[in-house]
Amino acid sequence: MRLATWNVNSIRARVDRIVGFAAREDVDVLAMQEIKCKPEQFPYAAFEAAGYTVEAHGHDQWNGVAIASRLPIDDVEIAFPGMPGFKKGYDGPDAPQEARALGATIDGVRVWSLYVPNGRGLDDPHYAYKLQWLEALRGYASDALAGDPDLALALTGDFNIAPTDDDNGDPTIVPGVTTHVSPPERAAFAALLDAGLVDAVRPIVPTGYTYWDYKQLRFPRNEGLRIDFILGSHAFADAVVGAAIHRDERKGDGPSDHVPVVVDLDLDGPDDDDRPMIF
Fold it and tell me: Rounded to an integer, what distance in angstroms lies between the CA atom of residue 275 and that of residue 279?
């Protein structure tokens, strides 16, 4: 299985580019974030013409997640257990949930497309929400793996955290001043790893960014962030045989500000797939 994650920054604005990438790179499963549309607005036809089935979750022109697959999609779930909600000016534990998480089981792998809250500012209520959201995600992953230690679990998507200084090349992202690099955010990311998850891409692709702001020539200067990840359980990570960050997808006309992150999985042994590894 070739699994990819991509914050597409509006699926309707970039559908041809996204479907073209998936078909060209022989992607079996594509987890998408920031689709920015309701399910009934999603451009299903373009994906279906390329052989994909799509599950989408969105409320309006903000956020939104989707999974496209050439393999059967089972056990679709909107929001992970315990996921908190958010509404500006709302004070209470039952705030409405945003469209930030979509799970499905595909070829025995439990795949989640996740769009972690941005946080906005260190003093913003959205920052506290972000930390609560990440703690709930950690709790879900911990419980899921405690219940089934052999579960092939993949948490994929835009985590809006640069977990180490090597993941931050943007001079405007400053520890102690801005989100994405604050100690609590980095601790929340580390807690996911402590819960039994592995960064499936880092051992194969130890450098490189996945996001560059549109402003101030950030991409030509390579002043980016590594904030898009594929975190997997040990059962998942043990099946990873290749990985890539597709930097060139940030080039050309009308790109997303993020690029795809891809892993190859050998789920059934060495004879399962004769495609080359994508180191």
Answer: 12
Residue 88 token pair: 């500006």
Other Cβ atoms less than 10 A from the Cβ of 276: the count is 8
End-to-end CA distance of the chain: 15
- Cα–Cα distance for residue pair 37/221, rounded to 1 Å: 32
Full set of structural domains in the chain with CATH? 2-265 (3.60.10.10)
What does the alpha-carbon distance between residue 203 and residue 255 come to, in Å, rounded to a whole number?
27
Contact of 240 with 263, CB cutoff 8 Å: yes
What pTM was computed for the model? 0.95
Q: Is 90 exposed, middle or buried (0-12, 13-18, 19+ CB in 10 A)?
A: exposed
For residue range 225-263, list pLDDT tens digits in order: 999 999 999 999 999 999 999 999 999 999 999 999 999
Burial annotation 210-236 (CB, 10 A radius, 16+ → b, else e): bbbeeeeebbeeebbbbbbbbbbbbbb
Q: For residue 51, what are its two tokens? A: 């052989």
DSSP state of 23: H
Distance CA 121, CA 189 (A): 18
Q: Which residues of the chain have pLDDT under 50?
A: 272-273, 276-277, 279
Q: Rounded to whole angstroms, how far apart are CA atoms 134 and 37?
A: 24
Which two tokens mark 222?
């390579």
Q: Nearest-CA neighbor of 9 among 22, 18, 1?
A: 18
Q: Do residues 170 and 234 touch, judged by C-beta distance below 8 A?
A: no
Count Cβ neighbours within 10 Å for each residue of 44-57 and write b for 16 or more, e otherwise. Answer: bebbeeeebebbbb
